[in-house]
Design brief:
321 residues; alpha/beta; D-Maltodextrin-Binding Protein, domain 2; 2 domains; 5-stranded mixed beta sheet; 45% helix
Length: 321
Amino acid sequence: MRRKQALACALAVWSVLCGACAQAADKVIAGTLGGQAPLWPFYIALHKGFLAAQGIDMELNFAPSGSGVVQQLTGGSLDVIVSVGLPEPLQAIDKGAKLALIRIIGKSAPYVLIGKANITSLADLRGKTISIGLSNDITNVYFERMMAGTGLKKGDYDIISAGVAAARLAALEAGVADAAMLLPPLNFHAEKKGYHAVALAADYVKDIPFTGMALSRAWAEAHRDIVHRLLAATDQSIAWLTDPGHRGEATDLLVKVAHASPEDAEASYDFLRKIGYFEPSSKVSRAQLQTLIDEERARGLVDAGLTVERLVLPDMTEVTQ
């Protein structure tokens, strides 16, 4: 009887302790764009336990657009955006939104210029039509940088705006465009259909970060410890992902969680590793943020008064020169 009572007490204590452990995890409401490979670190953080090890219970929500997820963050329905194109939060901060950038996620643009089989170099675009993003899309910045050393200027080729990458591919396949700026995995699909990879944006633009983690300033101030733990889990996940020894497990995870095809998962892993897509540390380059501000200002999308200091949290964002 005593043994049974002792066992019952032990089980009761264990139950209480387990309940306390479960309650100890801090809930974080996160948002991001729907996607596959660019969100790899966060699939890993969730499914390999890096977030749990940091005492974080993350709810990951998906939005259809960068502006949409930034609006959710600004409105208070999200605590953090784990990955979003940088122009959207930058423009929101410029307009007065109480947001901040805390980390770079994608440090190099994964854009690939895909063209018809007879286009083998950027110089071959003379007299051709290229499908890029909308006029205020940062895709234009990358494309103009890529074309800068070709000797070609605007007027030597035609530009059509086709919105998202899927629409650009559709323009290429319909024969409306001779080349298009695409993102993985669409560039892999186009190459299988006989189109040619002409150039990688990452080979031409190395001073503009691509995506980042943004959060509410009020939430960050109230949850400083959680912010630091979230950054630690992200660092650990990216380190795990970029270890080539984990290629097989990483691609299997992308297939299982993000419903990528095995071919797309493997091609995406090799491509993102080739261009050094993921930023390995939480350090944020002041020079690169300033370059992004300068590009957005030149396009008339932010005011002259926007500074790096307004984009970051000085005591939480690790800004380097």
